[in-house]
Amino acid sequence: MDDVTRVEWRAWGQAAFDEAESADVPVLLSLTATWCDHCHEMDEQTYAEPRIAANINDRFVPVRVDADRRPRVRDRYNMGGFPSTVFLAPDGAMLTGAGYLGPDGMRQVLDSVGTMWESKGEDASRIPRPLREDEPPAGRLSSDVEGSMLAQLEESYDETAGGWGVEPKFPLPDALEFALKRDREMARRSLEAVSANLFDEYDGGFYRFGAQADWGEIQHEKLLDSNAALVRAFSNAYLYTGREEYQEPASRTIEYLTTTLWNDDADAFANSQAPGEEGSYTLEASDRAAVDDPPVDAGVFAGPNGLAIEALLTYFAYTDDERARRYAERALETLRTDLLEDGVVAHRLPDEVTDSLERTPLLLTQARGLRAMLASASVLGAETLEGARNIADVTIETLRDGDSFVDAPARGAGLLERSLRPLDANVALADALVDLAILTGEERYRTVARETLEDFAGASDRFGVQMAKYGSVAARLLEDPLVVRLGTDAGTDLHRAALRVADHEKVVVPNATTELERGAARVERGDRASAVAETPEKLSEEVRTILEQ
Questions:
Q1: Position 169 confidence tier, pLDDT thresholds 50, 70, 90
Q2: Integer Cα distance of 479 and 120 in angstroms
Q3: 174 by DSSP, 3-state: which?
Q4: 29-51 tens-digit pLDDT
Q5: What is the mean pLDDT of residues 472-476?
């Protein structure tokens, strides 16, 4: 991305900060992403301007960071989107920052920051609040959490355009799934809005978001993680309704993921696809076919791949779609063979951008890798539970700080030496630990999951709809999820019937032969257990009985 610029970019690392300290100048951090159209535009219009580049090279130490490849840097310095243009003191503390800056805006900011540094130096810097105040507001989980989250969804629901909030309008797959079980009509209208506005009818897959409240000004980049999450959400909508309008977007997105975003060399999913040529998305199909395909970032990242594996297995569980199963298994094999070692899921495979495999545990990557292993055990009956245990145990050992988790070990240049306690990643791990406790019978994982959520519970009434997953996991801990245990292998009629019980928050446990006779099934919820069922029809009856108790 930086080949068109005249800026002498340094790599992220302590050497850049040492250089800034020695020269007594600030660091200019440019956070970009390969799929970000505005990032390329800023390179071409701002950083390529000779006088701006000379000013930066003379008065700053410029550092370029790919946000996807260095998520810890992204999470500490992101200014709300990409590009992020952040000015730092030599110790990594923030001076000021902005998003996209055109040439005139950049000239003004460079002069302002230069003057600020000359007059105040490091006294002008600050540590962002999430890194300064590390203790979350703890409390007790109560049934009010689920109700409060539902009330927030209802309050921010857009009756006219569907979805939640005003602008920009994101698809919010976790909110879609939360609403599916608690307000089906709100979920239905929002799913239809996402499909109508963000789904690419020509190539398949979902665009990232709409900049306007009515879903206008679509941002046409396609990211693996958001597409995978939407495959799962639409698959779960199909589970409840059996309607083709939900199955088709999921199916066609899987086709997109397994073609356009499939990296044959790595046998896994690529990271993203950049927007196409401006105006190409409004062309007729015959004309669009003549336009060059937008570039794909072939980087393989473990977290998004874990999410894709779970999503494809969810779709397979409801449809027996062999394509979804086959590609999920291939990506899972790459994750297990090339990315997982001693319970640590490496963030990414080496690629043309960086050629090293760093095995530092990252909380969200660990959580998504764990979910992929659990989905494989539940849906395919694969022998992945031991690997899942290892991931969970290493995460608890290395990243648990108090009753919740930090994003990674506190080490590295700049603010990487300070811990961050991300709510979304904590919730994702807690959700996986609930399933792990059921699949393994080890209650300790459930205890950690509950303590994790309680560590944030004091502020749960203020979580926005983006954190709907917190409400879902809290409900699973307080009310106990539906569990179907099977004395059969995966793939039997009884197993398929269990997977298709209309509750996407359930847990299916195949091969529970130490508890059940071969060919039998039992439905549980907390301390309640059904009679034994030996046919899909009898299983459906026992599910209804348990739910009515």
A1: very high
A2: 55
A3: helix
A4: 999 999 999 999 999 999 999 99
A5: 97
Rounded CA-CA distance 313/257 in Å is 14
Q: How far apart, in whole angstroms, are the C-alpha atoms of residue 392 and residue 493? A: 31
Closest Cα to residue 214, out of 247, 178, 165? 165
Q: How far apart are CA 157 and CA 178, in angstroms?
A: 13
Contacts for 458 with CB less than 8 Å, ≥ 6 apart: 136, 137, 138, 139
Among 190-204, 275-289, 389-403, 515-529, the range scoring the smallest mean pLDDT is 275-289
pTM of the model: 0.96
Q: Is the pLDDT of residue 1 over 70?
A: no
The DSSP call for residue 348 is: B
Q: Please, which residues bridge with residue 30 across strands? A: 64, 85
Tokens of 519: 């060919």
| Widest Cα–Cα separation across the chain | 79
Domains of the chain in start order, with CATH, are 14-126 (3.40.30.10), 148-479 (1.50.10.10), 480-548 (no CATH)
pLDDT at 533 over 70: yes
Cβ atoms < 10 Å from Cβ of 78: 17
What is the chain's mean pLDDT, rounded?
Answer: 95
CA separation for the pair 286, 457 (Å, rounded): 53
Residue 353's pLDDT band (cuts 50, 70, 90): low
* Token digits of residue 200: 């690419």
Local structure of 56: helix, strand or coil: helix
Residue 2: the pLDDT is 45
Distance from C-alpha of 478 to C-alpha of 467, rounded to nearest angstrom: 18
Supply 518's token pair.
Answer: 């071969």
Written in H, E and C, the secondary structure of 90-128 is: CCCCEEEEECCCCHHHHHHHHHHHHHHHHHHHHHHCECC
- Look up residue 373 and give its two tokens: 């292993």
**DSSP letter, residue 9:** P
What's the CA gap between 125 and 127, in Å, rounded? 7
